[in-house]
Write a structure and sequence with these properties.
- This protein is an alpha/beta fold.
- It folds into three domains: 36-146 and 188-348, Response regulator (Rossmann fold); 149-184, no CATH class; 375-529, IlvD/EDD C-terminal domain-like (Glucose Oxidase, domain 1).
- Helix content is 34%, strand content 11%.
- It is built from 20 helices and 14 strands.
- The strands form four sheets. The protein has a six-stranded mixed β-sheet with strand order 12-11-10-9-13-14. Strands 2-1-3-4 form a four-stranded parallel β-sheet, with helices on both faces.
- Strand 5 and strand 6 (153-155) form a beta hairpin.
- The two termini are 26 Å apart.
C-alpha cells in the first residue's frame, strides 16, 4: 500500500527537498523518509494539566515501540485541557482542542496516530479530532494516581474533596485538616483515582476497542503503563500496514458496548455528552434514549468511589476492566473488533478476577440495574441525566418546593444565608450554567448544600441544573437539562415555591406548572446577554449544539477525511 506520508517525503522535487531537508535538522537519517510508516504521537502534556504531566515519559515508550516495529515516530503537541485549573471550565474548550487535533493530523505527513490523553477533556477532544480525519489510530491513557492516604485510610480525588468541604462548612473538620489532606490525596502522577470522568474516559476508550486490553486501570506510575505504551507503539505500525482506520473500530456495536460497560463500572454522567460527540464525528447514529435503554438494564459491578468504596489502584490489582467485561460478555457484542485486531470476546474471555469485593460477580451484583438514567418532562423537554448509583435511593422519587438560583453568583451569595427559605425536602434549582449561559457548562451541578442543613446532618438533596458535575461527585443531581435556560428552555421559568416532582423509575422530571402558565411566564422573559462576544467564545456560543446532541459545534459534526488537496510550496 502507498503510505500517505509519501505524498510529502516521497516527492523528488523542490517540495520533497523542503519536507525532508528541514526535518533532517533534528538528526533524522535519510532511511526514515524512504517508505517507513510515519506515526504521529499526539501529546497533551502540559504542566498546567497536572493529570498529564508525566506524558513525556510515556511518549518515549511509545517511540521505542514504533522504532522497534520499523516506523518513524514524530511527536507533536496539541491544546491541553486541565480540568483543575482552566477557567471558566475545560468543557468550553473541548471542541477547540478537537479542532487543533484534527487539523494537526490532517495537515501533516502522518500514516497513523497514537493519542496520549488522560485528564477529563483531553480524551474526548483527541478522539473527536482524530475521528474526523479517520487514520489508523490508537489510544494510550495516562493512568490514575495512586490511592490517596490520609489519617490511616484511603481517600479519593474529588469525591473526598466534596465531602471534606461540606465537613468544614458544618464544623466537623478544621481548615488545617482540610489543607493537610491536599498532598495526601494527590501523591503521584496521574489523573483522579476515583471513577470520575478521567477514569470513565479511560474505560470508555478500552470499551470502544480503541486501546490495548488493560489500558484503563494501570496506575500512572506503574512500570506496566510504560510497557503498554511500548506495545502500543509496536501495534500502531501494524495497524497502518493493515489500514485499520478508526471507522473500522468505531462501529455501532462498539458504541453499544461502551454504554453497557460504562453502566457496569458506574461511570460519570459526562460519559453521555462525550460519547454522543464522538459518535457524531465518526458518523454513528446515537442518541440519549440509546444510552438509557442500553445501559439502565445492566448490572452495576464495580465498587469504586463515588458509588462505592475502592479506588482505581484497587481496580487494577483486582483485574482491571477486562475482569468486568468478562462478567458481562453475554450482554455485549463479543464480535466487535478492537485495535489489536482481536474481538472483545477474544481479548476478555479469560480475564481473571482477583478480588470480588472490588469487582462483583454477575451472579451477585452491587445493583441489578446501574447506568445513567435519562429523564424527560416539562423542565427538560429534550432530556436530563442522573446517575442513580451515586444518588440517595429515597430521593429518586420525591416531591418538593423549588429554591431557585438565577445564576452561579446568586447561588454563592445566598446558599449559606441563614434566612434562606429551605429545608431538606426542597429542590435546589440552578439556572444559566449551561453551554451558552455560563459559558461552557461547568461542573457546578452538584451544588453544595445550605450550611444550616449541613449542620443538621443533612447530606443530600435533589438538585437540578443545566450544568454538569464532576464524575467524582455524588448525590441526587439532575444535570444537562436541555434546552438550557439561557436560550429559553423551560428551566428558565421555574420560580421559588414551584412544586417539582422527581420520578426516576418512570424517567420523569416535571414541575407542577401548566402549559398555559409556562407561556405566560415566557412573555416576561428576556434572552440572556452572553459575555465575551469575541473570538472562540463567540464562535462557541453561536454554534454549540445542546447537550442531548453532544455539545459539539454544529459545523464540526461528521468528518472530512485525511485528504489535503494542495501542496504548501
Amino acid at each position: 500500500m502507498k503510505l500517505r506520508s509519501q505524498d510529502w517525503f516521497g516527492l523528488k522535487d523542490k517540495a520533497g527537498f523542503i519536507y525532508r531537508g528541514w526535518m533532517k535538522n533534528q538528526g533524522h537519517i535519510q532511511e526514515q523518509f524512504e517508505g517507513k510508516p510515519v506515526i504521529g504521537i499526539c501529546n497533551t502534556w502540559s504542566e498546567l494539566t497536572p493529570c498529564n504531566g508525566h506524558f513525556r515519559e510515556l511518549a518515549q515508550s511509545v517511540k521505542n515501540g514504533i522504532y522497534e516495529a520499523g516506523g518513524f515516530p514524530v511527536e507533536f503537541p496539541v491544546m491541553s485541557l486541565g480540568e483543575t485549573l482552566l477557567r471558566p471550565t475545560a468543557m468550553l474548550f473541548r471542541n477547540l482542542a478537537s479542532m487543533t487535533v484534527e487539523e494537526s493530523i490532517r495537515g501533516n505527513p502522518m500514516d497513523g496516530v497514537v493519542l496520549l490523553c488522560g485528564c477529563d477533556k483531553t480524551t474526548p477532544s483527541l478522539l473527536m479530532g482524530a475521528a474526523s480525519v479517520d487514520l489508523p489510530t490508537i489510544v494510550v491513557s495516562g493512568g490514575p494516581m495512586l490511592n490517596g492516604k490520609y489519617q490511616g485510610k484511603d481517600i479519593g480525588s474529588g469525591t473526598d474533596v466534596w465531602k471534606y468541604s461540606e465537613d468544614v462548612k458544618a464544623g466537623r473538620m478544621s481548615y488545617e485538616e482540610f489543607t493537610a489532606a491536599e498532598s495526601c490525596m494527590n501523591r503521584s502522577a496521574g489523573h483522579c483515582m476515583t471513577m470520575g470522568t478521567a477514569s470513565t474516559m479511560a474505560c470508555m476508550v478500552e470499551a470502544l476497542g480503541m486501546s490495548l486490553p488493560g489500558n484503563a486501570a494501570i496506575p500512572a506510575v506503574d512500570s506496566r503503563r510504560k510497557a503498554l505504551s511500548h506495545y502500543t507503539g509496536r501495534r500502531i505500525v501494524e495497524m497502518v500496514k493493515e489500514d485499520m482506520r478508526m471507522s473500522k473500530v468505531l462501529t455501532r456495536k462498539s458504541f453499544e458496548n461502551a454504554i453497557k460497560i460504562n453502566a457496569a463500572v458506574g461511570g460519570s454522567t459526562n460519559f453521555v455528552i462525550h460519547l454522543l460527540a464522538i459518535a457524531g464525528r465518526i458518523g454513528v447514529e446515537l442518541n440519549l434514549e440509546d444510552i438509557d435503554k442500553l445501559g439502565s438494564t445492566m448490572p452495576f459491578l464495580l465498587n469504586l468511589m463515588p458509588s462505592g468504596k475502592f479506588l482505581m489502584e484497587d481496580f487494577y490489582y483486582a483485574g482491571g476492566l477486562p475482569a468486568v467485561i468478562k462478567q458481562i460478555l453475554p450482554h455485549i457484542h463479543g464480535d466487535a473488533i478492537t485495535v489489536n485486531g482481536k474481538t472483545m470476546l477474544e481479548n476478555n474471555q479469560s480475564a481473571p478476577n482477583y478480588n470480588t469485593d472490588v469487582i462483583a460477580l454477575r451472579s451477585k451484583p452491587i445493583l441489578e440495574e446501574g447506568g445513567i438514567a435519562v429523564v424527560k418532562g416539562n423542565i427538560c423537554i429534550d432530556g436530563a441525566v442522573i446517575k442513580p448509583s451515586a444518588a440517595s435511593p429515597h430521593l429518586l422519587t420525591h416531591k418538593g418546593k423549588a429554591v431557585v438560583f438565577e445564576n452561579i453568583e446568586d447561588y454563592h451569595a445566598r446558599i449559606n444565608d441563614p434566612n434562606l427559605e429551605v429545608d431538606e425536602t426542597s429542590v435546589l434549582v440552578l439556572k444559566n450554567v449551561g453551554l451558552k449561559g455560563y459559558p461552557g457548562m461547568p461542573e457546578v451541578g452538584n451544588m453544595g448544600l445550605p450550611k444550616k442543613l449541613l449542620e443538621k446532618g443533612i447530606t443530600d438533596m435533589v438538585r437540578i441544573s443545566d450544568a454538569r458535575m464532576s464524575g467524582t461527585a455524588f448525590g441526587t443531581v439532575f444535570l444537562h437539562v436541555s434546552p438550557e435556560s439561557a436560550i429559553g428552555g423551560n428551566l428558565a421559568f421555574i420560580q421559588n415555591g414551584d412544586v417539582i416532582e422527581v420520578d426516576v423509575p418512570n424517567r420523569k422530571l416535571n414541575a407542577h406548572i401548566s402549559d398555559e402558565e409556562f407561556e405566560k411566564r415566557k412573555l416576561n422573559w428576556r434572552p440572556t446577554t452572553f459575555p465575551m462576544e469575541r473570538g472562540y467564545v463567540k464562535l462557541f456560543i453561536d454554534h454549540v449544539l445542546q447537550p442531548d446532541k453532544g455539545a459539539d459545534l454544529d459545523f464540526l459534526v461528521g468528518k472530512s477525511g485525511d485528504k489535503v488537496s494542495r501542496d504548501s510550496h
